[in-house]
Amino acid sequence: VAKTLIMSEWGSLLILAALGESEAS
After folding, report:
1. End-to-end Cα spacing for the chain
2. What angle do CA 12, 18, 23 make, to 5 degrees?
3. What is the C-alpha to C-alpha distance for residues 4 and 21, in angstroms, rounded to an integer?
4. How many CB atoms lie within 10 A of CB 11?
5. Overall number of domains in the chain
6. What is the pLDDT of residue 23?
7. Contacts of 13 (CB under 8 A, 6+ apart)
8. Rounded Cα distance, 3 and 13, in Å
9. Domain of 1?
10. Predicted pLDDT of residue 9
11. C-alpha dihedral over 8, 10, 15, 16, to 10 degrees?
């Protein structure tokens, strides 16, 4: 369960980073 939570946390960060880059450009 802990691994799933960690992966979802990283997934959210990656998605936010991708959205931020697309908005910046």
Report:
1. 37
2. 125
3. 26
4. 10
5. 1
6. 82
7. none
8. 15
9. 1-25
10. 94
11. 110
Structure tokens at 4: 């799933």
- What would the pLDDT profile of 1-25 be if each residue is shown by its tens digit? 789 989 999 999 999 999 998 887 7
What are the start-end ranges of the H helices in 1-25?
Answer: 2-24
Name the residue with tokens 């880059």: 21
Q: Please tell me whether the overall predicted TM-score, pTM, comes out greater than 0.85 for this model.
A: no
DSSP label at residue 25? -
**Rounded CA gap, 25 and 3, in Å?**
33
